[in-house]
């Protein structure tokens, strides 16, 4: 990373502390000492109309958090449905191949049976006694015996093929049942997402313009307070990890999406949800990762916060319902929630559950 882009990022982080909003125009791969902070001027939380804006802010946070949990459930069901659909297609191909093989075996078995019938029904010792050339008969009898062994093998293969077909059919039926269950789970999650977002939008729609402005200020100050507390712990001084080559590519992809809208269930290119952004960023870097924040937390290797480096994923909240990408200088890029766009903010602005690294 060039020194010009590093300077832009560091300057942006200093401005973030001064303005109570962390934002940056570029990407950093180092972690300099944080700039001094100031104490923000308290904002009144009660509007002239008597609304408790701080209570509204917390209620909105809860609604959007529940929407994020439902979004993760929707995404998980969607991924499982895709996988099961693919497995059903594979099973269908195997069934077709097995049926073709069974038809071929039946034809071969029928031909062998017809050949044996044409050989006559006399006992072998009688055919030997009547034969003009016993040696020729014995040679022919050997071939017949080989043919009988081949026929037995053919019948055994037919039986195995028939059993395989029956198992494929059972597996396909089981996958269809799972697919249907996941479709129902996805539909339930979709309803929950819409319900929570509608409730949040209804709550926000009841506010006047000045109240919305004060509410936005409260949100900024809450994030600023959490980030300041995180930085004050001295954690940033311990973080010195350098981005891997894949990590740099992932960070570049994620930061290139800044300004694009949040949309639940979206994986780009025009919009993203939180895990859609991180999974696509790492896919662009050539390293596939799980689709949802909860599965990213469950499946990817964990690293200590002090050891994290740009490109690592920070998982938030006790239920792993949100994920962001660390980009250096104590900042993250993420898709926050409905009504917002992909943006850069402070890594400590939300409760951190832990850090995972896709490219260990």
Structure at a glance:
With 360 residues, the chain is α+β, with helices and mostly antiparallel strands. It has 9 helices and 6 strands; from the N terminus they run αααααααααββββββ. A 6-stranded antiparallel sheet has the order 1-6-2-3-4-5.
Short descriptors:
about 350 residues; alpha+beta; 9 helices; 6 strands; about 5% strand; elongated
As a percent range, the share of strand residues is 5-15%
By DSSP, the count of extended strands is 6
Low-confidence stretches: 1-50
Helix/sheet category:
alpha+beta
Task: List SSEs in N-to-C order.
Answer: HHHHHHHHHEEEEEE
Summarize the biggest pleated sheet.
Answer: 6 strands, antiparallel
Helix content: 55-70%
What is the overall silhouette? elongated
Cα distance spanning the termini: 22 Å
What's the arrangement of strands in the largest beta sheet?
1-6-2-3-4-5
H/I helix tally: 9
Mean pLDDT: 77
Task: Describe the protein in words.
With about 350 residues, the chain is α+β, with helices and mostly antiparallel strands. The chain contains nine helices and six strands; from the N terminus they run αααααααααββββββ. The chain has helices at about 5-20, 55-120, 125-130, 135-205, 210-230, 235-240, 245-255, 275-285, 295-300; strands at about 300-305, 315, 320-330, 330-335, 345, 350-355. It has a six-stranded antiparallel β-sheet with strand order 1-6-2-3-4-5. The longest helix is centred in the middle third of the chain and has 72 residues, at about 135-205. The radius of gyration is 33 Å and the shape is elongated.
